[in-house]
Amino acid sequence: MKKLLFSFFLALITHVILAQQSPTTREMNRINWMEFADFVPEKITTVLLPTGTLEPHGVINNGADNSAPEAMARDMANDLNALIAPTLNYGITGSMAAFPGAFQITEEAYRPFIRDILRGLAKNGFKNIIILNGHGGGQTKVLQEVAAEVANELGVRTLVLNWWSFASDVTFEVFDEDGGHAGLNETAYIQAIDPTLVHKEKYSAEMTTAYPAAGTWSASPFPSSIGLYKAGQGYPNFDQEQADEYFKKVNAKVSAFIQEIIKKWDLAGL
Asked: What proportions of the chain, in percent to the nearest 5, are helix, strand and coil?
C-alpha cells in the first residue's frame, strides 16, 4: 500500500513539474501575458510564424496558403518547444490576384509590415524566428530579404521555409510523381487537415495548366487555379490515406530540419 501511495504521489509531482515546464497553450493569440512572461525567453526561445495569402486553389479553400503552415505549426510546436505567432493571412498574391476572393498586398506595404512583425517577435524575447511560408513567388524573396536584415540588425536567428518546395522529395515518395499549386500534394495536405475544405465534386482536369518552361510563354492572370509543376503530373487524386501519410511525413521532415538548424546555430555560438 505504501509503495502504491509513493508511486501515486511521485507521478503527481512529475505531472505538476512537467505542467510547469509547458505553457497552457502554444498560441500567442490565446496565451495570457503573465504566462507569456513566465516562459519567454527563459524556457521558450523559438517562435513559429505562419505566412500565406488568399488566392484560388482549385477545389480547396482560398486560404490554403494560410491553413497549411498554421496546421504545420500546431503539429510541431511541442516538439520544437515553440510558441505560434498569429498567421499572416494576406500576402503578395501575384498572377492569380484577379480570381474571386483573392487579395493582393503590394510589396511596398508588405515589406515594412513583415519587418515590424519580426522586430516585434525579437523584442518579445524570441531568439529563433521560424517563418513557415505557405505562399511562394515574390513573397518568398521579400521574406528572405527582410528576415536576413532583421537577423543582422537585432542579433536574432531567422529561417524562412517554403514547405512544399522543401518537402518535394516527400511528394515523390508518397505519390510517385510531382505536384503543383493546388495540385496533388497541396490538395492532399489540406485534405489531411480538414476534408470539408476539399470540394471533389467541383474538380475537372480542365481546371489545370502546366507551368511554362522558362522563356516560353507568360499569361496574366494565370489561366488556371491549379498549376502543375510538370505536364501530365500532379492532378489531385483525393486519396485520404495518402493525404494523411503525406501530412505526417512532410511535418516530420520540416520539424527535423528546424531542430537541426537550431542545433547548428547553438554549436556555432550564434
From this structure: 50, 10, 35
DSSP state, residue 213: P
Q: What confidence score (pLDDT) does residue 16 get?
A: 42
Question: What are the grid coordinates assigned to 242, written together?
Answer: 495518402
Residue 223: DSSP 8-state: S
* Cβ atoms 234, 228 nearer than 8 A: yes
Does the pTM surpass 0.85? The reply is: yes
Dist. CA 37–CA 183, nearest whole Å: 42
Span 193-220, average pLDDT: 97
Closest CA to 86 of 74, 104, 94, 76: 74
Answer for the pair 62, 54: CB distance below 8 angstroms, yes or no. yes
Compute the chain's Rg from CA coordinates.
Answer: 21
Cα-based torsion angle of the residue sequence 86, 257, 169, 192 in order, rounded to the nearest 10 degrees? -40
Report DSSP state, residue 229: S
Residue count of the chain, please give it: 270
C-alpha cell at 254: 520540416
Give the pLDDT mean for 34-51. Answer: 98
- Mean residue pLDDT of the chain comes to 94
Give the Cα separation of 129 and 255 in Å (integer). Answer: 14
Tens digits of per-residue pLDDT, 207-245? 999 999 999 999 999 999 999 999 999 999 999 999 999
pLDDT surpasses 60 at 158 = yes
CA angle 130-46-15, nearest 5°? 135
Alpha-carbon distance 208 to 9, whole Å?
A: 61
